[in-house]
Amino acid sequence: MDLLRLALERGATARAAVGHLTSLLEEHGQGGACEEGGDWTYENGFLLADAGEAFVVETAGTRHWAVERVPPGKGRNISNGLSIRTGVESCSAGLKELCVAKGWWDGEGPFDWKRSVGAGGRAHAKLDVRGRERAGADHLAAAAGRVSDGSLPAGDVAGWLGWMAGVLRDEESGICFRSTHGFMSTGSQISWLARGGGHTASHFFTAASDPLVACYKRWTFGDPAAAAGDGLAGDGGSLALWRRWRSIDLAGRSVPEAMRRALLEIEAEAVSAAERGGASEFSGSVARELELISSFAV
Known about the structure:
Blueprint: H1 2-10, H2 14-28, E1 45-49, E2 54-60, E3 64-69, E4 90-91, H3 95-102, H4 113-119, H5 131-149, H6 157-168, E5 189-192, E6 202-205, E7 217-219, H7 224-228, H8 238-250, H9 257-276, H10 282-293
Antiparallel strand pairs: 1-2, 2-3, 3-4, 5-6, 6-7
């Protein structure tokens, strides 16, 4: 994750961030345990996007990587595994030669990153898209269908934000990782990066691990009031909110339907603000949510 933080810090565009990330990976490598007190490790994959371009970056071993550029008008998702096939725009130095030397690629046909690196050049069932990755791809295909029939126009801010929130709340597919499954996400985020049209880039955070109970709250980076937290902590009160929701979850408390409706009203107001543009109301939304759930704190 340090690679991602540095790439976002140094790259003004998605393409620049890809360059920083891959350069750092080749120079310094990746590795080490990804949990305290354990030896669990994994390789990393990233989606990097701005209002003009989007890329998938996937890694293998210590220093190897491949990049796929997402074509305009197309959607892309990743989920804990290699997903790039033959659409490799660029890759790490010596990768293709290594795959030929190992017998993973014949050096003549299209270079298939997932088959070569993830399956040793063999065709088998693990190459199929499955699980959460399949569910995400199905959601994207459904959205593409709605774009084609005109029911989800490209500039429909509320429509797209509502669709994405629904995807991230899809518990049945496993996309929504609730703690009821024994393993949970830290938080959930949606970003609206409009190209033109006068819309301010808007980012929505739950500040809670479970988007099925918490609402999305809008943040606009660069807004002085948001950065100051409007009088709350420097994080806009989000840490206090996360802890409050966590205590409710650990106590096994359920959110009443009336409270759920009130939380969704906060979310609807945040979406409406994104349509209008203007300053962030993140800390105000956090304060309202904290007040709503205060009676459930333990």
